[in-house]
Prior knowledge:
The complex is a heterodimer of chains A (896) and B (229).
Chain A: H1 9-24, E1 28-33, H2 40-53, E2 58-62, H3 69-75, E3 79-80, E4 84-88, E5 91-95, H4 98-104, E6 108-111, H5 127-136, E7 140-146, H6 151-161, H7 171-176, E8 179-182, H8 187-195, H9 202-210, H10 215-243, E9 255-259, H11 265-280, E10 283-290, H12 297-312, E11 316-321, H13 325-335, E12 340-344, H14 350-355, H15 360-366, E13 372-376, H16 400-423, H17 429-446, H18 449-467, H19 479-528, H20 532-547, E14 549-557, E15 560-561, H21 575-587, E16 591-592, E17 604-609, E18 614-622, H22 630-696, H23 700-732, E19 740-742, H24 744-752, H25 756-761, E20 764-768, E21 775-777, H26 779-796, E22 803-810, E23 813-819, H27 851-861, E24 865-870, E25 876-883
Parallel strand pairs in A: 1-7, 1-8, 2-3, 2-6, 6-7, 9-10, 9-12, 10-11, 12-13, 20-22
Antiparallel strand pairs in A: 4-5, 14-15, 14-18, 16-17, 17-18, 19-21, 22-23, 23-25, 24-25
Helix pairs in contact in A: 1-10, 2-3, 6-10, 6-11, 13-15, 16-17, 16-18, 17-18, 17-19, 18-19, 19-20, 19-22, 20-22, 22-23, 23-27, 24-26, 26-27
Chain B: E1 7-11, H1 15-27, E2 31-35, H2 38-48, E3 52-56, H3 64-72, E4 79-83, H4 88-96, E5 101-104, H5 109-123, E6 131-134, E7 137-140, E8 145-148, E9 151-152, H6 157-168, E10 173-175, H7 176-183, H8 192-206, E11 216-219, E12 223-226
Parallel strand pairs in B: 1-2, 1-3, 3-4, 4-5
Antiparallel strand pairs in B: 6-7, 7-8, 8-9, 10-12, 11-12
Amino acid sequence: MMDDQRPDPDALLAAIQKAEASEIRGRLKVFLGMAAGVGKTYAMLDAARQRKAEGVDVVIGYVETHRRAETEALVGGLEIIPRRQIEYRGTTLEEMDADAVLARNPRLVLVDELAHTNAPGSRHAKRYLDVIDLLEAGIDVWTTVNVQHFESRADTVQQITGIRVQETLPDSVLDLANEIELVDLSPDDLRKRLAEGKVYTPERIDTAANNFFRVGNLTALREMALRLTAERVDHQLQNYMAIKQIAGPWKSSERLMVAVSPSPFSEKLIRWTRRMAYNLEASWLAVYVETGQAASQVVKDQLSRNLALARSLGAEVITVTGHEVAPALIRLAYQRNVTQIVLGKPQHTPLQKFLRGGSLVDRVIRSSGDIDVYVVTGDKTQSSPGRQFLLPQPRLHSSLRDYFYAVGIVTLVTLVDLLLVASLPWLGYQAVGLTELLAVLLIAVYVGRGPALVAATISAISWNFLFIEPRLTFTISQVHDVILVFLYFIIAIFAGNLTARLRAQERLARYTADRTLALYTLAHETATAVNMDDVLRTAADQIQRIFQVDVAVMLLSGGGLSERAHMCSTIQLDDKELSVARWAFEHGKPAGRFTETLPLASAQFFPLLTPNRTVGVIGIRYRRNERLSADEALLLETFISQIALVIEREMLDEAAQQSAMMRESERLYTTLLNSISHELRTPIASIKGAASGLANSNSASDRDALISDIHGAADRLNRLVENLLDMSRLESGRLQIKREWCDVGEIIGVAVKHFDRCAADHGIDLRIQPDLPLIQVDFVLMEQVLVNLLENACSYSPPGQPIRVNAETRDGAVVITVEDRGPGIPADKLETIFEKFYRVPGTPTGGTGLGLSISRGLVEAHGGTLTAENNDQGGARFLTRLPLNGSPPPVKEAAL
Amino acid sequence: MTGNGLQVLVIDDETQIRRFLRISLTGSGYHTHEASDGESGILKAAQVRPDVIILDMGLPDMDGLDVLRRLREWTRTPVIILSVREHDQDKVTALDAGADDYLTKPFSTDELMARIRVAVRHAAPAEELHIFSTGHLQVDLTRRIVTVRGEVVRLTPTEYALLRLMIQHAGRVLTHRQILREVWGREYENETHYLRVYFAQLRHKIEADPTIPSIIVTEPGIGYRLKSG
């Protein structure tokens, strides 16, 4: 526990963060009133006009004058943003057009009735969410609200006025407000205004005066409003002191914990805890213990609502699993340094409490140790399901068939026993009883609790009737038999209950194990995935399998959300849904179905959040239109954050690779520059030199020689340029291979045609296997490969030594060999010669060292290989291997 | 002089190319006209009515293909296109669209002259060709007899049709599609493997060295050409 005088670091941080946050946000001013008609809108408009006169850019986002004359008068002169028209079920509803306000970007906007619920089809379900959007965009907002609309006050208002408040606001919204102005009016003055028709139209005055606007109500409401304002001021003072690090009368840091259940009464408990926490300046937790009991959809929904309520009121919501509620609560309480636990007053009768070892409250109190326990009364009408009752509740899943099974088994056993008793007289009725008991136990294990209960009853009765003296009557003659029957019954019930619970525990344990396994599998699979596509596919698979949902993933792309879903997605998204996804991405909050934002979407969208940024959005479409249980939702959230981290890891990986590639290409660029500069300039020098030589020459033979030099140099330049272009196409990955059925012999024939001079000097020996099968390659590219290889052979082979070109099939591939009788390749350089710009030291000049690299690139692009070795005569041999895949359709003679 | 005063229109935006073409062509007896872009080229063609047009595919104002198409709307004047190595597909498209032949830059003037001669020859409808001979090959088109080095060679009907087509367009390139369409029919115009098989067979029968053919030459990526004189 903290020293009472020192400010709690957490609170300080929160205060500083809030102060920082309020600088970038717009400022919110709330005009608070106790009831309709006190003059909130009027006060707001009045102040706004003053601001306008001072030169501030003020617009009206939404103002509801209720046709009160005085208010209407104040509207004139202020710019009004036109309302949005929404068609809904044949009528046109009007709502504030938040987008228009954002586009207009005023300094200050007036938005009436903060608690209003928007029409279906609006971006947000509630107006206050729109207001938050405006504040985040840096626009100041003034708004009005009545005290009855706040969550924590709603119950009290209902109690006082008897009227259930429909539209409520989470209290956290009030925390956002920088200023609260209380528009106060005494109840009498308000009633006078009401009577004068300044509040409602004449028809409604009487009803109002007699119901909501009774003096008692108004007084109570006034007090609530005053108190609320006072609390806020107090809080602001605390915050101020915290920021300025003024040590004040700090309360000790306490922490409350409320146990949440699927009952409606839980709501009241939660609100109560919130008020208590507020007053104690304490943080509070809302805890749900998942015991693995099956629950209906209604129950699941109520639980989700309760947890959402707790969250919206500012609790930290925690779900734990455990087969017993009390120990799980206590465990958590100790872990989190909880100082007070809040529970609802139990409903069980004393007998139930005795037999069960006490109600939940009793058990918690027993093991609470130092922790205070608050027990709060609930409504008498509500009971809380989910707690374990004494009488075994019929398992919700026991079907009629199960009951028939139970009855059938008991009947069978009874008949068998009858036979046995008839044939074996020494077999007494006690033994019969035990066999029946065994049957009941088995039913409890394999069928269910309910059927076991029924079986117990039937077997007890039939045991009595058929086996216990006097037989065939319901009376029992011996006293000890009465006790026997009675005990039998008790044991049967207990045993049935126990085995059923055991089964439930087992199921829960298996469920927890499954869940852990699922998480582990996800982590493991995504850790071993090789690239982003793999990761996403694995993750999507897992989620689909475990939650039975369909998935779409959109990633961060160029600073915003990508337009298209990743290919691992199994659902198509239309533009509307994409914009919901985009909203979730930009605001870092879930949106879509089952949320408060755009709940009409067909899928739910979760932003993939990492500490640094949002890396994308995942959309979940539920196959059955029901929301997940609290536990499943927690698991899903865990999955999603895991996935987000893995995605970020992949993105960082890619970025690292990119920069590695950039460094590599830097290096290549420098090498290229060095190599090329010489290679380019030499032939250019030749040409220029020869050209000027021509001008000065007189001899025809000299001129011929110079002209021949110019041709040669131009050819060299041409080849160089072709090489560079090929290289750049290969490197850029934009090489297009036009595959068609080709005859390798034909390609070789064409390639050899380029080397007439070489053929004259060296001789080119062609050995092409007859009936060589056709292969699917790009003719021109393959020609290029062979030309490069032949060029090498020609330049390295000494004059007079032939160059041999072989083409044959070998092991399911076509192998083309080009060999020469040159000096060969040093054994350790057999691979390095294929590197760009590499030339074996001591080779004749001319050539960029790109030829082999290009050839290999082209061959590999076809799925083949190009390797080098030395042949027996010491020369080099290059093998190009192109896999055969399939053969062309047979050819037909022409129809002539 | 081979030119015989024939009119050649050169459409190319590069001054140096126009210059050396002009010099070479006039040196061989042709009359040259020049245009430096597509529109003026088309206009000049209409004004001058040349016997051969040399068209560069890389013009600044229009795609060479468009120029070709517009010319082909009203004239059958032979057109020889100039292109660069990478643009095989463009060459094929141009040839299929009515160009008569092509040259890849950089080219020698010898090649150019040869192509112009061939193009002009095919443009002027000569008398019926009865006997065709080149190198060791002689073909009697009326009696359908093929002899290589004096010995008769038996060709299948398809092989003969193929050979005859090439002879009819002797010296000029034919695209894969054109050959397939003419010999086998429109439905076969994409079955290039037919050509590989049949030309291989044909070459085996008529070429001195089938692996390095000298009569029927492969134009990689484009088609085939039967070399003549």
